[in-house]
Design goal:
The chain has about 575 residues and is an all-alpha fold. The protein contains 17 helices and 2 strands. Helix 3 packs antiparallel against helix 4. Bound molecules: copper (II) ion (CU).
Length: about 575
């Protein structure tokens, strides 16, 4: 429209034009992305240091930490990895998707900086209590279930963090509105921004649940109210704790789509279907939170089964849509780029040496085969009985949040640093190895935890030999020892993966050459050429037959593992 052009020209806010993408980078948006991303990686590193100490404690042959530090660091590790690392990174993503991707500006930049400051202050308070507070207040775990009571500053820290994050979500929507109003963004929102919009929507009700949970707990900790009902706390806590993982899921899926575009020039096979799948997440995935209270008294069986099975299946369906759509976008792009032979040439000839691509592909595989399958199983009320509070639970979420989300975020970082920070990677060789190392470590770790859980090993437990207990007992047999070694070694390898990632990033920011023009590494693929219209009838067939084969393999695997769990349940009680 005619009136819009002059309105845009009057803006004299500092910005630069990206020489690769042609997008306009608003200076304060750029600074916010950098601040949040660097902060995220700092807490990833701290959480990983705790992780390696914990892994080497659960491995009974090493049994590194004493009980005090074990429980303190379980708490520290959980909160830093699941909340601080991931959410700070997502905040960077929200700013990026609502400003840079739309070539638009950050609205209310001062408020955005204040939100970051609130989040950082909250993080420091929580970590201060967990690392240096009295033991009984510092070892309440990520969940801090009453009657475990932490220090008031612990709850206050979580509240400040949540308020800051909520502000960033609201600013995301305001940024999108501003991009529309100014005419910077017209037509449908890019899929990446749309996906992060779904994440931000889920984040709003997630954070509201966090407030509903933490404010009474804070009042209780300072003595203003007498008690917090444990059952109510658990329900509302998981209204925060589980959807928080769905925010991660949405962000991760949006990043997968983006990485498919950047690494092979892929484009969603059917964008409308992908957008609808994001919408299904918003509508249904929160109900899945009920899987955290499957063994709690107070909720009816019908309520549990409705929420975790019938409603959840809509969200699982959405994940299956993405699981088909994203690899298919890669296959279609690869075929159009000339790798069309047979079922799998596109996959063999994929850019496996591009760390952003390998991170995306490995994270998709780990998330789907290990995380998704185990999640559906653990979320089924009946089968859950054999899994509850065993190491199978952390076995599951290390394959979703770590093998999936964290690895996808690492993959995106391989582009964020050259494009936003304008630095050439210090070591391309280390970058190429890193996703493989991390993925291998986390896969071994997750499978070992799952195996130990199947043997009955509890989660969050310092000593499975029960040394010094009145009744002698041990869970250690030769299988358990081998699996514990797997947990320890997998943990060490994954830790090396984090260390190399962080060290390479820091070295890049300090020593990396400044990018002039187009960054050299990792390569950015041109959009794949359009379909060959001469191939009549092509559009009637699904354009990615290789992915269809993979999907059938996945479904067979899924059904086999699901059935095996029901079979094992049937053996749990000898009837007849
Ligand atoms: Cu959950």
């Amino acid at each position: 429209m005619a009136i819009e052009a002059p309105a845009r020209e009057t803006k004299t806010r500092p910005s630069r034009v990206c020489q690769v993408t042609g997008l306009t980078l608003d200076r304060s948006a750029e600074t916010l992305v950098k601040l949040n991303a660097v902060t995220a990686v700092v807490f990833l590193l701290l959480g990983a240091i705790a992780a390696i100490l914990l892994g080497l404690t659960r491995w009974q042959a090493v049994h590194l930490l004493d009980a005090n530090w074990y429980y303190r660091l379980v708490t520290f590790h959980g909160i830093n990895m699941l909340v601080f690392w991931i959410v700070f990174f997502e905040m960077a993503g929200l700013v990026f998707a609502s400003t840079v991707v739309l070539s638009s500006r950050q609205v209310l930049p001062k408020l955005a900086y204040a939100a970051y400051a609130l989040m950082l202050a909250g993080t420091l308070l929580v970590n201060g209590v967990v690392l240096f507070g009295p033991f009984d207040q510092a070892s309440v775990m990520f969940t801090a279930y009453p009657p475990l009571k932490s220090h008031p500053l612990f709850y206050l820290g979580l509240i400040l963090f949540a308020v800051g994050a909520l502000l960033v979500c609201l600013l995301f929507f305001l940024n999108v509105v501003e991009a529309r109003r100014s005419g910077a963004s017209t037509g449908p929102l890019p899929l990446f921004t749309y996906g992060l919009g779904a994440a931000a929507t889920i984040a709003v009700f997630t954070l509201v649940h966090g407030a509903i949970t933490m404010i009474p707990a804070f009042l209780w900790s300072v003595g203003l109210i007498d008690a917090v009902d444990p059952a109510v706390y658990r329900l509302t806590f998981w209204g925060f704790g589980h959807p928080a993982q769905q925010v991660n899921l949405c962000a991760m899926v949006a990043i997968w789509y983006l990485l498919s575009t950047l690494t092979v020039g892929g484009k969603a096979v059917n964008e409308k279907v992908s957008r609808t799948a994001f919408l299904l997440y918003v509508l249904f995935i929160n109900l899945g939170s009920a899987h955290h209270v499957l063994v709690d008294p107070g909720f009816s069986g019908a309520w549990k089964i409705f929420n975790t099975s019938y409603a959840m299946s809509r969200a699982v369906f959405a994940s299956l849509v993405h699981a088909l759509s994203i690899p298919a976008s890669v296959e279609v792009a690869q075929r159009r780029s000339g790798f069309g032979a047979g079922f799998f040439q596109w996959l063999r000839k994929a850019p496996w040496k591009n760390p952003a691509f390998s991170a995306m592909a490995l994270s998709l595989a780990i998330f789907g085969f290990l995380g998704g399958v185990s999640g559906v199983i653990i979320g089924t009320e009946q089968v859950n009985l054999r899994v509850h509070n065993t190491l199978r639970v952390p076995g599951h979420f290390h394959s979703t949040v770590v093998g999936g989300t964290t690895l996808a975020f690492m993959g995106l970082t391989y582009y964020v640093i050259p494009l936003v920070f304008r630095r050439e990677w210090w070591s391309a060789r280390l970058a190429r190895v890193q996703p493989w190392l991390f993925a291998a470590g986390i896969t071994v770790l997750s499978i070992s935890m799952t195996g130990l859980g199947a043997l009955g090993h509890p989660r969050r437990h310092w000593d499975v030999t029960f040394a010094g207990s009145v009744l002698p007992a041990t869970l250690l047999d030769s299988t358990a020892r081998a699996l514990q070694a797997g947990l320890g070694i997998g943990g060490v390898v994954a830790f090396l993966g984090v260390l190399i990632f962080a060290a390479n990033a820091v070295a890049t920011l300090l020593l990396g050459k400044r990018v002039e023009g187009r960054p050299a590494f990792p390569p950015i693929a041109p959009l794949a050429p359009a379909a060959d219209t001469a191939a009549a009838g092509e559009h009637r067939r699904f354009p990615a037959p290789g992915v269809l084969v993979l999907v059938v393999l996945f479904l067979v695997f899924f059904i086999a593992v699901y059935a095996a769990n029901w079979f094992a349940l049937s053996k749990a009680w000898g009837i007849g």
